From TrEMBL, chain B:
Pfam families referenced in this protein's UniProt entry, alphabetically: SoxZ
Domain of life: Bacteria
Domain Sulphur oxidation protein SoxZ residue range list: 9-103
Protein name (Swiss-Prot/TrEMBL): Sulfur oxidation protein SoxZ
Family matches, as NCBIfam families: SoxZ_true
Length: 182, 106
């Protein structure tokens, strides 16, 4: 991704500084055109290979735009993990306050006590976009903690993927406006 | 903005190691009105990818959204980390900025 961005940036600079176009000694093409084409091809090849060799966005270097854009909880879970509803499990330990005094900093901890945890995702049902964060593991334990923003009182849902199955845990978090704990 | 700090703290208890990452990042959602111009909104600026590696091998990869709080504090756990092992995090945001930090397990 970074390399693509860099390529585009270089491309942009080149386009801006064209005054004279010297001929390339090897290809006999105008040099700038040659560079431009090479860069464009490089970008295409980059995008193509990312798509070909890394199916499933969880492994891909790209950020899952659709999952973060989803407006409904079900839609967001499907966009992250594919079809199949998660089943509630007590092995998913979700630690969030029952009442959040500062809705911009709600501490969340998810601990998955099952073997082979592949991924953990955190959702806030009533946020404009429910998906907060998604973590996929390739060596680390099934644990994820963060601080998150909540728009209003809502259910917080943690979904864990372990051994190809989906598990979830849910808790309601009350957001008090004004932070007086009422 | 170039010098956004990435701090890593590790704590080992038994065979479990907690890794905590703190990044000084605004995490703008893109929905907050601009305090200077009420008709405009502060452009979105948030971390999208945060990857962890142990001695050069990737161990966890996280995707963050704008709903993660300002100055994100992200924690993961590792098993069997030996003293001297290098834990590295790299991140990148939606405006093309990136950063990294490294810590040695104690």
């Amino acid at each position: 991704m970074t390399s693509i961005l860099r390529a585009q940036a270089t491309h942009f600079c080149l386009a801006n500084e064209i005054i004279q176009i010297p001929e390339d000694p090897v290809t006999h093409l105008p040099r700038r055109l040659f560079l431009k084409n090479t860069l464009a091809t490089a970008v295409l090849v980059g995008v193509g290979s990312a798509g070909l060799f890394r199916p499933g966005w969880a492994l891909a270097a790209e950020w899952p735009k659709d999952a973060f854009a989803a407006k409904q909880l079900d839609e967001a879970i499907r966009a992250v993990f594919g079809p199949g509803a998660p089943s509630p499990s007590t092995a998913v330990k979700l630690r969030v306050p029952t009442q959040a005094e500062n809705s911009a900093q709600v501490q969340i901890q998810v601990l998955a006590e099952m073997p082979n945890v592949e991924a953990i995702a955190v959702f806030v049902e009533k946020n404009p976009s429910p998906l907060v964060a998604h973590a996929s593991f390739s060596g680390a334990e099934g644990y994820f903690s963060a601080r998150m923003k909540m728009g209003q009182t809502s259910d917080v849902v943690a979904v864990v993927k372990a051994g190809g199955k989906l598990y979830s845990a849910k808790q309601n978090v009350k957001v008090t406006v004004g932070g007086c704990g009422g | 903005m170039a010098d956004i700090q990435t701090k890593i703290r590790t704590k080992t208890q038994g065979d479990m190691t907690d890794v905590l990452v703190l990044i000084d990042h605004p995490m703008e959602t893109g929905q907050r009105p601009d305090p200077k111009d009420k008709d405009k909104k502060v452009p979105a600026h948030y971390i999208q990818k945060l990857n962890f590696s142990l001695n050069g091998k990737e161990i966890a990869s996280t995707d963050l959204g704008p709903a993660v709080s300002k100055d994100p504090l992200i924690g993961i756990k590792l098993k069997g980390v030996k003293p001297g092992d290098k834990i590295k995090v790299t991140w990148s945001d939606n405006q093309g900025q990136s950063g990294n930090g490294e810590a040695t397990a104690g």
